């Protein structure tokens, strides 16, 4: 692989019909994201979480990893969550993080998307 080639893998999706109690459990969700980081093979730099009360509140957990980030946001009153895992480099695998989150939160339905964010510079040539 050429040194000037950047590998970027981005998995993101929505989870519908998740358990309301799990969606409010900040400590459980922090632990889930820590396990997702480990499963992906990424290197944890920092982990932050917030709990916002109210009807449209929920919990957000963000892991800053050397390779980029993993982020989980929940809206318990709606039984809804979003998960985003973006990693750079050959080592980390965001699909492994996605699979773990899916198995743990057990949504009734989900959507998942993948974007190859790899970048190989293209020389600019004037027309």
Describe this structure in words.
The two termini are 30 Å apart. This protein has a single domain, classed as S-adenosylmethionine decarboxylase, CATH 3.60.90. The chain has helices spanning 20-24, 26-40, 94-105; strands at residues 8-16, 44-52, 58-65, 68-75, 80-88, 109-116. 28% of the residues are buried. The model has no long low-confidence stretch (mean pLDDT 93). By secondary structure, it is an alpha+beta fold.
Number of helices: 3
Oligomeric composition of the shown chains: single chain
Percent in strands: 35-45%
- Overall shape: it is elongated
CATH architecture: 4-Layer Sandwich
Terminal CA distance reads 30 Å
User: What is the helical fraction, as a range of percent?
Assistant: 25-40%
Q: What Rg do the Cα atoms give? A: 16 Å
Average residue pLDDT? 93
Low-confidence stretches: none
Enumerate the strands of the largest sheet in spatial order, edge to edge or round the barrel: 2-3-4-5-1-6
Remind me, CATH topology? S-adenosylmethionine decarboxylase
Count of separate structural domains: 1
Notable traits:
6 strands; 40% strand; alpha+beta; 127 residues
Summarize this, please?
It contains 3 helices and 6 strands. By secondary structure, it is of the alpha+beta class.
Question: Secondary-structure blueprint of this entry?
Answer:
Layout: E1 8-16, H1 20-24, H2 26-40, E2 44-52, E3 58-65, E4 68-75, E5 80-88, H3 94-105, E6 109-116
Helix pairs in contact: 2-3
């Amino acid at each position: 692989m050429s040194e000037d080639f950047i590998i970027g893998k981005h998995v993101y999706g929505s989870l519908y019909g998740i358990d309301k109690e799990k969606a409010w459990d900040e400590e459980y969700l922090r632990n889930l994201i820590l396990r997702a980081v480990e499963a992906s093979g990424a290197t944890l730099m920092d982990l932050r979480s917030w709990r916002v009360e109210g009807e449209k509140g929920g919990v957000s957990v963000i892991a800053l990893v050397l390779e980029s980030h993993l982020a989980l946001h929940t809206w318990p009153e709606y039984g809804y969550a979003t998960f985003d895992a973006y990693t750079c480099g050959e080592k980390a695998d965001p699909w492994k993080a996605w699979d773990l989150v899916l198995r743990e939160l057990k949504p009734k339905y989900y959507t998942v998307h993948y974007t190859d964010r790899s970048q190989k510079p293209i020389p600019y040539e004037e027309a």
